Amino acid sequence: MSANNKSLLDVATQKLTESQVWRSIFRHGYPDTPLNQSLVMMGNVFLHLHPVKVSRKAMKTTYTWCLGGISFFLFLLLTITGVFLMFYYVPDTNQAYQNINQLSTADSFGHLVRNMHRWAAHLMVVSVTLHMIRVFYHGAYKPPREFNWVVGVLLFFVTLFLSFTGYLLPWDQIAIWAITVGTNLAPYTPLLGNSVYKVLVAGGAVSQATLVRFYVGHVILLPLAAAILMAVHFWRIRKDGGEAGPPPPSRRELEAQSGEQRSLTSSTR
Ligand code: HEM
User: Fold this and answer.
1) What SS3 state is found at 125?
2) Which of 66, 205, 210, 216 has its CA 20 to 30 A from that of 41?
3) Ligand 1 within 6 A of 138 CB?
4) How far apart are the first and last CA of the chain?
5) What is the 3-state secondary structure (H, E, C) of 111-151?
6) What is the number of structural domains in the chain?
7) Tens digits of per-residue pLDDT, 179-188?
8) Residue-wise pLDDT tens digits, 86-122
9) Is residue 108 in a domain?
């Protein structure tokens, strides 16, 4: 009975895997040889985002702590919740504060989505910083990953600027004065300081013009820059052979290992 069932199952499996539909989706056999493994990785739209071979040790969650992935997830969450907030928010000094008040107290799910946006923003600054520290700790900024490190540094600044520009938008007292203090630091920078202040604030003090500048930067320019930089960042990770992984053992470690093995075999004789 079970033999019959098995053969039926075998026949059904064979029919399925040999059908045109199956073969049009899965073009290569079961990935149990190095060649098939490479072909499967390269022929699949999702898997081809990874390099063909990756270091097994670098795949462990405790190696990367998924900090880059968490940063990317938070960016997606911020984009989705940010679009929701845009339906309710007008960057006008006479309306912005009321809009946010109304959103937090009267609109359906407004308070929840606003807080999701706020918390995700704080967490992203934390996760990107920790990711940068993790990469530095593993020495993954060294060649061939030095270009991706520079892309990462740009992503770090874009993340900080997203946080800075978003802070002004509720147009409450803490926002206005925090941005006044923050932007007033700019003129102390040698050479470009005054010009940077004028570009940021659009006048002599934080005003309606500043709010529009920060709004456009926050919802268009900086997210676009982040998305482009992330695309380059992920492409580079693939091209650099995936995660750096721990370095191969040094000659001294290899010699010590073989010495230990020799003494083990002589003691068992
Ligand atoms: C929005 C910010 C960022 C996102 C979404 C992001 C995303 C990622 C992801 C998903 C990975 C692979 C998995 C992992 O290592 O966790 C990665 C790797 C890497 N990231 Fe980032 N990253 C960001 C910012 C940064 C920053 C600030 C730096 C450094 C200045 C950086 C430098 C690198 C490098 C060098 C690698 C390769 C690491 C290795 O080979 O071990 N990234 N990033």
Assistant:
1) helix
2) 66
3) yes
4) 54
5) HHHHHHHHHHHHHHHHHHHHHHHHHHHCCCCCCCCHHHHHH
6) 1
7) 999 999 999 9
8) 999 999 999 999 999 999 999 999 999 999 999 999 9
9) yes
